[in-house]
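Risk register update: the risk that structure generation would not scale has been downgraded. Supporting records follow, first protein first.
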Amino acid sequence: MRKPSASFCPEGLPATFLAGLLTLALALLGWFWSALAAFALTGFVVNFFRDPERVVPHGPGLAVAPADGRVILVDRARDPFDGTERLRVCIFMNVFNVHVNRAPVAGAVRDLAYHPGKFLNASLDKASEHNERLAMQLQAEDGGLWTVVQIAGLIARRIVPWAEVGDDLARGQRFGMIRFGSRVDVYLPDDYTPEISVGRKTLAGQTVLARRRADAPKA
């Protein structure tokens, strides 16, 4: 599995280079305001593709948020892999959030399923069924099945996967990103309960998303 750099996503290098080149060209032409606008665009691109390190919490029975952003929905919905109704947590990322996504739990990538679709506003509930998306099924170390769905949004036009079927991911490990505004849905196993509610802001790999119930049978 290819690993991105610790502070900046390699996928952002072409866009950063082009924005910087445009800024330089406009400055050399003496077009001050246009160069200033291009400089601001370069800053935006650098900010978007940043990839900071996170302090991943330790301890058994913990799941972390897969994305930076804000929780917009906690409900029950049908899992895209097997159709069973499960608890779902939806996190919306705006264009100013870090867009690198991280594994909620340690486990093996069991399946990946890409679904082409539309580019509706990712904050809408119907985006989970109609937008372009990539679903990843994880089998956790405790045996539970997790589904993480990266959903492209109104501005986002590309989901960038780094994980492949068969990869073993650590809790909080990077597995992909989505470019420019999007959403990530997490489907929890029945023996986990959410630790966050609608409106809560999250940090990928650091915010505790859910916790395994104390009465759940051990694997």
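Supporting record for the second protein:
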Amino acid sequence: MVAAAAAEEAHHSVALEVGMAAVSVGIAVIGFLIAYTTYAKKSDRAERVAAQFKGLYQALLNKWYVDELYDALWVNRAKDLGRGLWRFDSRIVDGLVNETAAGTVRSAVGSGWWDRWIVDGLVRFAGGFVKTASWPIRLSETGYTQNYALVMIVGVLVLVGYVLWGTL
């Protein structure tokens, strides 16, 4: 029973709703007429009211300074944060990346020098040494069978000569 009474109290009559709508429309029409007579007909009413209520006029003209307050509290602080993060990124993060890259390049230059002059130099030296030391042997190593047979015959003759020379 109490719930039913509360539900009935919550409903307003149609006449009350129509009356409230009429008052709202009436206020809007009055505001439109005041604005029309003040601004569209080029009367001096706006200048007189602005001069009479100078502080209130400035506050209304600047929308109670809500935009300026919003800019000061949020927009400018977000810009400051963005600038700070940009400085951090450009100086710390990019600096670290750039220094790492420069260190890598220096390391690569040093490694390239070491590889070219020490490692490759030792390989070239070893190859050149073997090539130079093997020069006399390369003259006798021709790959022809008749040359090898000739060397064996000369060797046998030298050996026979040595043996015969030793017995005399």
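The CA atoms of residues 8 and 147 lie 131 Å apart. On this basis the risk owner (M.S.) recommends closing the item.
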